[in-house]
Amino acid sequence: MKKLAFLLAVLTVVTIMAVPGFAASGQYYSGYWGVTSNAFIAVDGKVLTLERNPVIIDGRILVAARTTFQVLGVTTEWYPSYGVIEMSKGDKSITMSIGLKVAYTDRSVKYMEAPPILVNGTVMVPIRFVAEAFGENVGWDAKNEIAYIGRQPTEIPSRGGLTNNRTYKVVIDAGHGGTQSGAVYGGIKEKDLNLDIAKRLNGLLIAEGIKTYMTRDNDATVGLYTRSALANNVDADLLVSVHNNAGNSKTTGSMTLYHPDSSKKKGNLTAYEFAKIVQKNLNKTLKSKDMGVIQRPNLAVLRTSNMPAVIAEIGYMTNSAELSKLKTDSYKQQAAEALRDAVLESLEKMYK
Ligand SMILES: [Zn+2]
Fold first, then answer.
1. Which residues surround ligand 1, an ion (CB under 5 A)?
2. 139 and 221: one domain?
3. Burial, 239: exposed, middle or buried (Cβ in 10 Å; 0-12, 13-18, 19+)?
4. N or C: which end of the chain has fewer CB within 10 A?
């Protein structure tokens, strides 16, 4: 991590504000390839709490428009049916369109190096372009990974305790795959749903500087013992297996499965405690019904892995309302964010 941090620092000094992304962890946003970043955003010396992580496209940082710029007194109007954003303060204004690199400001057309994008309903705009259009300067604190408008912040909040030089290793297991579809309802195969959420989680954990391993990143058939063997071989801190549930049509909610053996402990964290943290975060973020943490001594993946491991059953595919949610990008993203939060909280407890 130290080496990587140094490399990041050097590169960002060379091209101010250009933060290299992790090619493997990106996804398309409004037609552009972007990666999520765990950089802090600060305005006038204060680090902001934002509803979304910044996204980096072509080395440019994009931030949540409204919450970032309202601190400066900038008003943001969003016209979803036209994909148009209008930001204004006093006699200055900028008009931009989602996915387009042209902006109208100061009575002229200007070109942006990255376009505004939409991430799960949040309008994200290039921080430097917008700040400069309103006469503000933008700086980059490479050491603390903070993009700031105006004054450089002196108080740096902690990043969830994962700031030491340890390399955290997490194995992400997308349940089923290949010839094993898992549950199939409403034309949706569980294996595809699991993989989609697992890939999102992978990107989010890489953005936190965690070393990840996926048991599959495509529609491959993977044996149950291969999954735990990977986790054991890389001496993973945690194993997260992503699944979705099936039951009767009325049952809904999230459930987390774990192995009761107390030897599956790492640092200060047992498998049971890991399961509790995962379940809590799923219920909190997805607002899903709490179906509890359940002991499953006979499931191969849990039984044969040496570290705290869980099977996270995100929701019930057999309930039509829950399946409709599971089909949406925003719900899958929230599920991945809940699992990311659970992993961070668990790693912090593990090494405290
Ligand atoms: Zn399953």
1. 175, 182, 243
2. no
3. buried
4. C
